[in-house]
Structure formats: C-alpha cells, structure tokens
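EI: anyone free to look at a 535-residue chain?
SC: sure, send it
EI:
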Amino acid sequence: MTISRRDLFKVGLAAGTALSIPSVLRAQTASAGSRTVHMVKSDLRVFDPIWSAASITADHGAAIYDTLFSLDSKFMPQPQMVGKWGVSDDKKTYTFELRDGLGWHDGTPVTAADCVASIRRWAEVAPGGQLIKALANDISKKDDKTFTIALKEPLGLLVEILADLTPPCLYVMREKDASRPATEQVTTKIGSGPFRFNEGLAKPGASITYDRNDKYVPRKESSDGLAGGKVVKVDRVIWDVIADQQTAMAALQAGEIDYFETPPADLYSLVESDPNLELQVLDKAGWDALVRINFLQPPFNSVKARQAILHLIDQEAFMRVMAPDPKYSSTLTSIFGDATPVSNDENTGWYKKGGDPEQAKQLFKEAGYAGEKVVIMQPTDWAEASNASQLLAAALQKIGVNAELASMDWGQLSTRRANKGPIENGGWNMFISTEADYSLGNPLTDPLLTANGDQAWYGWPKNNEYEALRAKWANIATLEERKALARKMQAIWWDFVGDVRLGKYISPIARQKTLTGLIGMPQTVPMWNMQKDSA
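SC: here you go
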C-alpha cells in the first residue's frame, strides 16, 4: 500500500506540470480578469443543502441561498433575512418579520410562505429542526412578510437552532421548491443569496460557475463570521473539479487557480516555500475524523462487531496518514469533540495506543462473523480519507475480515451513502468522514450525535436510552448540567458504538496570496467578502 507520493509530486511540480492542467481550465483563466476566482473543491453532485449534509453542498447553499439567522465570529446568532423578531410573554410564540429588499433570483419577492415551507422541510431531517417540529403547535405565515412559530412549551434555544451552521443548515428556498419532501432532491438552483448559479456554464464533473447577484441587498452591518453584510467583491467564482491532486497543486503553483481546498498534507512545506502561496487555517478548532458504520447490514448490525472496530483502530497511525505533521493532529476519545465545553473522558477505557487487534479479532468471533464481505467506500479525490480507507481495509484484513475497497469520488460517495440496502444492491458497510469539532458540542443540532434509527445520519445508529438523554439537552440551563448529561450520553454511546473516532486534525487550505478576505468559520466556506488583488 503506497500512502505518500511526496517524491513523485515534487519531481512533477519542479518540472512545471502546469502542462497537465486541463485545456479548458487554461482557457477559462486566460479569458478571466482579476474579478474571477477559481476554487478547486470536490466534485459537487448534490445541490440540495437540505437533502444532503455534505459540507460542499452547504458551501453551494451559502452561495445561492440565504438564512433567517447566521452566527457571528463569536458563534452568537444574528438576524440575516429577519428584520425584526420577538417572543410572547409566555415564551411560547415567536414572531419574525422579514427585512426589506429580499428577492429570488427569478425576480419574485421572498415571502413568509417561503420561510414557513423551508422551516418545515428542514425540520424533517435536521436534528434541531426535528426538535422544533416536535414542540410546535403551528408554524405559519401571518402576512407576506411575517410568520410565527407557536410552541407547546418554551424552547430558549430556538433562535440558536435556527442559526446553527451544522449541515443541513436552514437555507430558505422558494415555497414551490420547499414543498417537496426532504427525502426528494430539489433540482432547481434558484435562491435569494449573494450569488446566482450559472446554468449555462455548468459542466458536470468539470466546473460550476457562480455569478455575483447584482440585485442582492446586503445587511448594513459589517461582515462578522457568517453574519452581517454579505458583500460580494468579485464578479464570478468558478468551482473547478480537478480530481488529481498533483494536477491541482501544479495549477495552484502556475497561478491557474486561486484556492485549493485540500492540498496534500505531505506537500504543505512546498506551499510554504512558494513566495506566491500561503496555507490558511479557516477552521481553527479543526476536524474530527471518524468511521461511519452501517447498523442495518451485517456484520455491523451486531454490537460486538462495532465494538471490534472501536478496539481495532490505531489513532496515531490514522493521523499519520491523514495529517503527517504532528503539529496538525491529535488523538480523540470524546464524542463531543476535543475543544468543546462538554468534551469529556467518560467510558474511554477502550482507548489503547496502537489499538488492540487481538481484542478486535475476538469480538468479531463473538459477533458470529462468518467471512461476509465488508465494503468500505473510498473517496479517491480526498487524499486523507482515501489513505485512511486503505489503512482501515488493511487493518481489517490482518484480523481475518473480508474487507474490500469500493473506489469512487466524494460526489459518488455522498450519493451512495443514502442507500440503506444490502451490499449486492449497491449498499455499503463503512466510510470515513469528518465533522467540525465545533459542531460536536451540541447534540441537538449535530446529525452525527443522533441515534434515532431511520431518522439518524448515514449509518442509522439506534439506541433509545441515549436518545432519551439527548432529548433532555434542550431543557438544561447551566453548563455544569450539560457537562454531567454529556458524560452520561458518552457512556452509553461507547457501549453501543454509534461510530468510531480516528483522531482530530487541522486542515489548512492553500491559496494565492492575492486572494484575501476569506472568512474563517467551521463547516462553511462562504464566497462573499473575499477579493482578488492584482499580483
């Protein structure tokens, strides 16, 4: 198994591998001015930010849609589409009035009916939305600009939940789009946000284009985190898909692209040595890497098999292939992240430096494992996860598990992971993903911290005892009480093994020094506020 291609990359880059850059990209760059930004990101296959919780789909959503509230740089909720809002004396009825100047890209005005339909659709799938839906007596429009949420009992966290940036975020869609069930993808790409999706220039698998929405009216407040005025300072953003990371890095060095979201970790030093390039950490809390396990299919419908993976993992080894520079990574044993107020060490006796392959082998035996194929979806266009998938397969094979890699790009993986069927019908057993450490501090809004079966995130973990504790989170007033509840929840989680953590790492992006103004927040990379200066 070959993990690092450091030498191959360096030779190719030193020789000027810009010749390998697709001619289409070279032509686009040649015709583009300084007001066009080229960003290399994963292939975007799903455009509905409610149907999918993928971060790249959330980035797309942030460009073309808008939100009722947004989080500022201190993670405090601030009004965005909302102009005024208030709550009744009994704390059960919230009234929201839209601000002036909101319009859809098709020229029609945004109305309260659009917001109501969007909240209802989002509430079908988002954990925080599901809580609001369960407590709501009614979510309805009052007039064209005003709507209300009437609750059965107070929910002091309601505005925070509406503003949360953990995908699927509450992006507001037109009523006719949001009326579609959340289980069906919205295929139109018409929002009210600061960018328009350019259908005419969309090249599936190659590039997608966003144009500045000249009719968008930003808020008057200064930009702060994802809140404040969404001021667009470029004319066009082209989201380029370059699956081969060597080619993408060469394009960055040649000045053909401005932003590379996932530079290979073993080439950070190459970026740092280039006077025109810079590494930048947008999410300083970092990412928690994890293995998602399919509870619906054997062998992992057995808790013993899931516990086997918990004991098998050598976190230090996984971090070496995902973040080779130790200054960018660390081990992780809390389901609530490493840097959140409720991170804890409850029920972490399973952790062992180097893992425990013999214990894992014994647990598979106790699970009745009989050689069934275990399919690991491997995203080949995401080097860190691709390498970690290879390491996971090798570790399983060493203890006698019939592990097999299914290679695909991330766009294909984000579609296939919704398949609940058996392996022979296109199903799966495992895949590696990441979550912003920030998001794991709130089990009401983070999909990864749910265990409600069919309503849970991909893998569909189910544990009623854990869910009963999670439901209490909304009514806890103090941080100390939340810490105590988090410990109880984590004790149960590591027993039924809702997923398995691989460690935490920080993943800087690489950019031209002429691209400035990038907003550093967890989960979402917004396209507004950035600007491209002359070289």
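EI: The CA atoms of residues 377 and 406 lie 5 Å apart.
SC: 👍
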